[in-house]
Structures are given as structure tokens and as C-alpha cells.
């Protein structure tokens, strides 16, 4: 039964709707003028033609229960949901008081995080995964509400969208996917995007998924569709697609000229289909409001816009000094082991894989709001490819420990989303079975690194992203690569890589107790290595950004991490026996933040530096370490800074190729000896 129609909807509601639609349209038309006056708003995607569905999304959104993920065209959506026109202008002209980002995110990215109107990326469709993650949290915590995610029909071509819909239908999550179909992806018509005229039909075979089609140009049809969708999603705990047929009256944005690809007939048609004008005519035709009443509403809306504009223009600009705020939150500070070392010698040594497994279990017992998922992590007799999560599902249940689809985007994106539900939630994810397979998730990695800064500190994903990394296992091109060189270029993530079992446990514990995003690289060749096995004290902790001097020396500093730490220690011992040379070996443990102080103090003492890592020498992380030493310690150096790492090639499968490519003791020894004799 339809709830809303022109004849029975009460007059006060109709007045409210018309006011919102008039106010939104007035701002939609005014927005380009800010750029023309060099006041900002350099990006504006007009919503005119989407009025019905956008009004409906905002009206159905229930503050305190729902989460809303609006896309860059959703101006009326967020206005209808309760944001003020002043707040929208503050975003448009990038003021410091913009509630979503304080001028850090681009215009037309409207958000109010405290209301759970979420700050989203410009990469279209990515937020569907975040909505699915929120839906998962809603189910787990028994929360009555829905996650509403909105975008155009062309975004459905993105893999993010497929993965989100697939996951939401598999897990039966209360997510409403609103697809505002205006027939274009910028300038590309819909028929060049998908074979089905109605893109929602591409998903018609999904189990547990309801599809509702509506006229997005019609207020009442849109209201009925969104109301039905929300009621159904809550009652049945199932996802819904609302496919809304719209028109795009203007260009894609103010950087697009639609007259280059749309003819006069089409432009005339979309103008005639204007939802605002249609609604106005209906109100008059059915005598629900008079011409005088409509004109008064329009005048009041213009007055509000003028007042809001005046206030927004007077708001402060962002302070350039603030750029370093909210890159990373303050981490958990270890108390029992503040420097991340211990002197325990009694007890049984543990392999690294065991240390990680036991630390995960310990922290899961400590914090019931901790979750883990990934590919193959929850099998009965194993946990992941390397058994790191063995026994966890049996102890903590399948709601906290479960296997994910082979969809790296989905793994990372839903972790981001689940953290949005409540800051007490901490998620550990196995981002891919091997680091080599992580690349499909790179956009979601970027999202996680951006969130805290982009939202001006209002949201930070509490995620530990585990990746089995590196070679020395004969794994070849897709089981042997190191990816930290690429990922360290992106601010907003802590990146750690242990060389020993105790550090693996300590860094993992600190990460799981910290706010923020941590990439936890696990050298898989060390999982069951005797060399990496150590005594692991109970509740051992390692602070971020604190290197560990594994061997003290005076003649040469070796800076290393991961697999190559063990090679460096062996080489240092060999050099001591052969020539009496004293080599200091620093295991940095933490790439970001980097303990420059320990490195610099060592170089001051030895005057020589050798940077060693498994990753490629060219563009590897060691280049940054070497550059810092060369810049800051130049006057203390007696020789050039040297690096040892992999060749600038992939890691080959044949053992002879792997040996030729990866660093080993002989390569490190040769470089060290050359430096010592310099």
C-alpha cells in the first residue's frame, strides 16, 4: 500500500517538502557563481533532475538510527536529511567550519559525521563497501537502522559496487543502495556502460536482494519507494536496491560542457521533465497549496539562502599550519615495556606464527569488540594459508572470526565501514592471502589512510591490516613481493615489520590497542624460522617508531628490518671474526613512524651507514632512509651511504632466479666490507 500521494499527504508535509526543494534548487543554481567570483566551489555537480529521489532519501533517513553515504551530487539529499544550507556552503567554499572536513575535502562532498552523514571519497562507488561494513555492525550489535548509500547508475560499473551488493546479499545486511539513473556517466551514455537499460536488472539474480524501481523525478513515487525500502531492510534484514529514474538537467559538473554531447531535443526534454516544476504544478492542480503560498515559500527559501551565504562568507579560512593535524592519531603507549625490549631469558622460545596467533587470541579475550576476517582465515583445522588464525573461530565464534570472499576491496572496505559504527570497534583483517594479491584493495587502503585527515579528526578507522610479505619461500612472482616501498608513500598509516617473534607479538598488541590504521607486514619466511623464534613475555608491547639495536658496534651501522635482519646479524658476526670489525645492527621494526633518532645517533658514532632490506633498491623504502642520513648526517659520514636490496625485477620462481634477485649474506657482506675499507 502506497503511503504518500498528492491527495492525502498532509499540507504541512507538502509545505516542508516544497521549501526544501526550493531551497536546494536555489543553492544548486547559485553554486557556480562562487567559482566565477573566485570564492571557491571549483567543483559542483548540479542535482537538478534528481529532486524527487534526493528529497526522499533525506526524509527517510532517521538520525540516530541510520547511516547515510551521499555522493557528490546529493546536495538536496543532505539538505533534506537535516543539514543546513549554511553547512553546505561552508563545504562548497572550503571554510574551516565545514562540518565534514574543515576545508580539507573538495566541494560537493557534504558530510556531518556526528549525525552519521558520512564523509566519502571522490572515487565513485567506494562508499558502498563502507555501507556494507556499517550494516554488518548493525546486525552484530542488534541495532535498528539501515545504511543508505547513494550514487549514479554509471558507478555500478565499478567493482566496488558489485562486491558490496554481493557481500550484503550473502551476509543479509540492512543496506539500501540508491542508484540515481540520469542516463550518463559524465559524457558517456548509459548504453555504453551496461547492456541492461535498467542497471539494477544486472543484479536481479542475487538472493536476499530486493529491487525497487521508482520515478526519481516524482516526489511521491520516490517517497513510497524509499519508505518501502527502509521498512523492508529492517524487517527482513536484507539489502535493497532502489533504482530511481532521473534526468540530468545540467552538465555533469562545472568542468563539463554538456552541449558538446547532447542535442537540443534532449536538452529540451530534460528541462520539461524538471521535478521541481512538476511538483509545483501538482500542488496547484490538486489545490493543496495556492500560488501565494508557493511564492511565499520560494521567497522564504531565498531569504534563508541569503542569510546563510552571509554567515558562511564570514567564516574563517583553514589555517595552513593545521596541515599536519590528524595525519595519525596518538597511539597506545606501552606501559609494561615502554622501550619495546625485555631481558627475559627463561622460558620456551616461540615461533613467530605462534606469537602472532597467541597475541591475537589474547587481545580478542581482552576486548570483545574486536573482529577479524580475511580469505580462508576461519577453516576448522587451519587459519589462513599459514595457520596464523588457527583455533580463533572455535574460541570466538563465527560472528567475530570469519572467512571473506576472494575480494580484497570488500575485506578492507567493510573494515573501514564497520569502524564507522562505533569507535570502540577494532578490526584485524588479513588484507590478502599474500601481499602480492593486495593490489585490488589499494583504493580502499587509500581511503583508510585519508579518513582521519580528510574528516578533520572526526573519524579514524581502527584497523590492523595484516599481510604476509616477502620472499625466500620459492614462491615466484605472486607469492614473494615486497610492497612497502609503494605503500609508505601514502600518509595516514603506521607501517611495521617485525624480524623476531617477540617484536611481532609486541607490535601487534600495540596496534590492536591503538586508534588508527596500521599496516602489519609479516615476513612469511620467518613464520616458522628458528632464527626468528624468541621468548615472548606475557603481554609484551612494542611502541611504534622505536627501533631496536640488535647488535652494538662502532665501525659501521647497518639499518634493516624483516628477513634481512638475520642476514645482517650473521654478516656482522662474520666481520667481527674475520677482521675484528665492530658492526652495529639496527632493526627499525617500524617504518612509519621511523626512529630517526636511533639511526642518527648510531651514524654519528660509526660514520658509515649500510641500509639493507628485501625490497628493491630502486624506489624501495631504503631510499628514504638513505636520503635522510645523507641530508641530516652528511658531516658525520666517512663514506657514501650504501644500500643492498633486490634487483629492479620481479622475484622469479626458479631457485636460481630467486637467489640472483633477492639480497643474501654474500651481497650484504661484500657491501659492508667495501664500506669498512673505504
From TrEMBL:
Record key words, sorted: Oxidoreductase, Thiamine pyrophosphate
CDD domains to which the protein is assigned, alphabetical: TPP_E1_PDC_ADC_BCADC
Enzyme class: oxidoreductase
InterPro entries documented for this protein: DH_E1, THDP-binding, Transketo_C/PFOR_II, Transketolase-like_Pyr-bd, Transketolase_C
Coiled coil: none
GO MF term list: branched-chain 2-oxo acid dehydrogenase activity
Annotated SUPFAM superfamilies: Thiamin diphosphate-binding fold (THDP-binding), TK C-terminal domain-like
Domain of life: Bacteria
Cofactor annotation: thiamine diphosphate
Name of this chain's protein: 3-methyl-2-oxobutanoate dehydrogenase (2-methylpropanoyl-transferring)
Organism this protein belongs to: Jilunia laotingensis
Biological classification of the source: Bacteria, Pseudomonadati, Bacteroidota, Bacteroidia, Bacteroidales
